[in-house]
Amino acid sequence: MTAPNSAERKTCWDARDHLWKCLDDNDDNVASCQRFQSEFEAKCPAQWVKYFTKRRDFLKYKEKMQTEGFTPAEGPQGAS
């Protein structure tokens, strides 16, 4: 596989941005954004789709940690 050229990269990024906007507008309901998901997968290399999907998950997790903070799980209490 050859690397995407400038126009192909822009097309991929635009498809990603449309999908992410749809997901944001629909509370991450993938079913509501199936058209954008299909377009994203068609316009981007598979490895990029995988990377951007993980990236979005990480960014959402990071945002949650920054706004809500970290709450440790309940564990054993007292000294060992």
From TrEMBL:
<dbReference type="GO" id="GO:0008535">
    <property type="term" value="P:respiratory chain complex IV assembly"/>
</dbReference>
<dbReference type="InterPro" id="IPR042289">
    <property type="entry name" value="COA6"/>
</dbReference>
<dbReference type="InterPro" id="IPR048280">
    <property type="entry name" value="COX6B-like"/>
</dbReference>
<dbReference type="GO" id="GO:0005739">
    <property type="term" value="C:mitochondrion"/>
</dbReference>
<dbReference type="Pfam" id="PF02297">
    <property type="entry name" value="COX6B"/>
</dbReference>
<protein>
    <submittedName>
        <fullName>Cytochrome c oxidase assembly factor 6</fullName>
    </submittedName>
</protein>
<dbReference type="InterPro" id="IPR036549">
    <property type="entry name" value="CX6/COA6-like_sf"/>
</dbReference>
<dbReference type="GO" id="GO:0042775">
    <property type="term" value="P:mitochondrial ATP synthesis coupled electron transport"/>
</dbReference>
<keyword id="KW-0496">Mitochondrion</keyword>
<keyword id="KW-1015">Disulfide bond</keyword>
<dbReference type="GO" id="GO:0007507">
    <property type="term" value="P:heart development"/>
</dbReference>
